[in-house]
């Protein structure tokens, strides 16, 4: 079958023809219907994260079940889309048992498409426990990108930021994650202010219902000395983290999602004097993935997605690297 493979040391995926997998006793075999591309793929291809073995990439997967393992027979529906929980938790460790399965610390756990075979392929086998049914009416491309670009901001805002009705939230960065973060904040009943350097992104955020959307360079004049319960930095650069420190309330939380810089300076005087908290955020849990699909089905979140052809995956990853993809992209077989 077709598969786009990571080869250690290579900076492009190898388009290959490999044997079609078969489902183990507690696995299912999915026929891939859509696979989202992500900057995390680029971190690997650019050598910032490396692996010592080849595997098929693609950690944002959606497909239909073609085969059920012997121990999970009859548990799933035919002609139905399922989304894959990319963190691929073990289900047995303390984190998994505590419902924090995004932090699974099983020594054998590998992320789908980042260490173990993923979705840039015709077929993908995954543990049956790590898929979630996609509600009818949600397209494969939306479901695929939602497994990261909606799940990650949802985990950051609802679970870690504890965003709720009337929370004041500043969202910094309106890329694929931030734009969904704005919608998630509104869906949770928060008062959301959005900021980005791109005017077209600010306009889109306003179309999504946010009352205030300001260019990051005008933030000081626009919001002056207002402070926010939660500031979510979807960029993770020095400048944006500095902005976050300036506008988070005393005792408030900065949720750091973006990986823009390797490190960002923390103001000790600000953090100590105003008892600030900075909270890292990683992907999301299986339970949260069920919740985001409900919100998408209720049209409270409308993920923007562009599509391309799976066999052009290297081209689209280059487009992503050059900043030419405005929202998120899913590849179709
Ligand atoms: C996945 C694996 C490792 C680091 C970051 C990611 C993100 O794409 C998940 O949101
Ligand atoms: Zn685990």
CATH topology of the largest domain: Quinone Oxidoreductase, Chain A, domain 1
Number of strands: 18
Helix content: 25-40%
Instruction: Write down the overall mean pLDDT.
Output: 97
Q: What about the largest sheet?
A: 7 strands, mixed
CATH architecture of the largest domain: Alpha-Beta Complex
The CATH homologous superfamily of the largest domain is termed Medium-chain alcohol dehydrogenases, catalytic domain
How would you describe this protein?
The chain has 333 residues and is of the alpha/beta class. The protein folds into 2 domains: 2-133 and 303-332, Quinone Oxidoreductase, Chain A, domain 1 (Alpha-Beta Complex), CATH 3.90.180; 151-280, NAD(P)-binding Rossmann-like Domain (Rossmann fold, 3-Layer(aba) Sandwich). The protein is 29% helix and 27% strand. It has helices at residues 39-45, 94-97, 140-160, 176-187, 199-207, 219-223, 238-247, 268-273, 286-297, 313-321; strands at residues 2-6, 14-17, 27-37, 55-56, 60-68, 81-84, 111-112, 115-116, 123-127, 131-133, 168-172, 191-196, 212-215, 228-233, 248-256, 277-280, 305-309, 328-332. The strands form 4 sheets. Strands 3, 5, 6, 9, 10, 17 and 18 form a 7-stranded mixed sheet that branches. Strand 1 (2-6) and strand 2 form a beta hairpin. The mean pLDDT is 97.
């Amino acid at each position: 079958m077709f598969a786009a493979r990571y080869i250690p040391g290579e900076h492009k995926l190898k388009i290959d023809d490999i044997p079609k997998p078969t489902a183990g006793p507690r696995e299912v075999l999915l026929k891939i219907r859509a696979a989202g591309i992500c900057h995390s793929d680029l971190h690997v291809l650019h050598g910032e994260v490396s692996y010592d073995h080849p595997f098929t990439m693609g950690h944002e997967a959606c497909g239909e079940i073609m085969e059920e393992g012997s121990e999970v027979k009859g548990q799933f529906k035919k002609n139905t889309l399922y989304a894959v929980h990319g963190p691929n938790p073990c289900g047995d460790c303390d984190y998994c048992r505590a419902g924090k399965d995004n932090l699974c610390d099983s020594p054998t756990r590998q992320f789908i498409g980042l260490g173990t075979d993923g979705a840039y392929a015709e077929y993908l086998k995954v543990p049956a426990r790590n898929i979630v049914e996609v509600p009818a009416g949600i397209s494969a491309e939306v479901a695929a990108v939602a497994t990261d670009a909606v799940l990650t901001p949802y985990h950051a805002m609802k679970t870690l930021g504890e965003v709720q009705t009337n929370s004041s939230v500043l969202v910094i960065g309106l890329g694929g994650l931030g734009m969904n973060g704005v919608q998630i904040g509104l869906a949770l009943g928060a008062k959301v202010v959005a900021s980005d350097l791109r005017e077209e992104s600010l306009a889109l955020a306003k179309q999504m219902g946010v009352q205030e959307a300001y260019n990051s360079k005008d933030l000081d004049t626009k919001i002056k000395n207002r402070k926010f319960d939660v500031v979510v930095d979807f960029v993770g650069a020095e400048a944006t983290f500095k902005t976050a420190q300036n506008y988070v309330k005393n005792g408030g939380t900065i949720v750091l999602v973006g990986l823009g810089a390797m490190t960002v300076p923390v103001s000790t005087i600000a953090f100590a004097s105003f008892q600030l908290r900075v909270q890292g955020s990683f992907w999301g849990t299986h339970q949260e993935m069920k919740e985001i699909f409900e919100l998408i089905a209720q049209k409270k979140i409308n993920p923007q997605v562009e599509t391309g052809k799976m066999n052009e995956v290297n081209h689209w990853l280059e487009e992503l690297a050059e900043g030419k993809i405005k929202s998120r992209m899913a590849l179709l077989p």
